[in-house]
Amino acid sequence: MRQRPMTIWVLAALGLAGCGGRAPEGATVIYAARLYTAPDAPAVDDAAILIVDGKIAAAGPAKDIEARGADSLGACDGGVVVAGFQNSHVHFIEPKFAGAKEKPAAELAAAMTAMLNRYGFTTVVDTASDLANTVALRARVESGEVAGPRILTAGGALFPKDGIPIYLREMPPELLAGLSQPGTVEEALEDVKANLDGGADATKLFLMTPQGNGRYAFMQPDIAVAAADETHRRDRLVLAHPTDIEGVNLAIEAGVDVLVHTTIGEGKTTWDAPLIAQMLSKNMAVVPTLQLFPYELKRAGLEQRIVDFATGDAVEQLRAYSSAGGAVLFGTDVGYMSEYDPTEEYRLMGRALSPMQILSTLTTAPALRWKDEARRGSVEPGKDADLVVLEADPAGDVANFAKVRCTIRGGRIIYGTTSPIG
Ligand SMILES: [Zn+2]
Question: Measured in angstroms, how far is the CA atom of residue 293 from the centroid of ligand 1?
Answer without folding.
Answer: 12
